[in-house]
Each structure stands twice: as structure tokens, then as C-alpha cells.
Amino acid sequence: MTLRLAAFVVVGALAGYGWHRLVGCRSGACPITANPYVSTVWGAVAGFLASGGWAG
Question: What is the pTM assigned to this prediction?
């Protein structure tokens, strides 16, 4: 269970960073995609939620 959760979080973080690199925000006005750290954290949170982390 913990390994599954960790895998989802890592994949989510990688997806968030990938979104920053591939789509990003050139002007810097986008609060999430302008900063690689923020987009990585948002991706990790999305991975956590996708794994059903709240359920137990």
C-alpha cells in the first residue's frame, strides 16, 4: 500500500515537472506552471489524490 502511494506521488511529481518543461509559462504570470517547484508539488499532490491516499 505504501509503495503504491509512493509510486503515484513520484509519477505525479514527474508529470508536474514535465508539464512545467513542456507547457510552462513563458511570461511568468502563471502561478503554477511558471515555477518548476510549484508545478512539481502540485503534480505530487495530484498523484496522491489519484492513488486514493485519503481513503486509507
Answer: 0.85
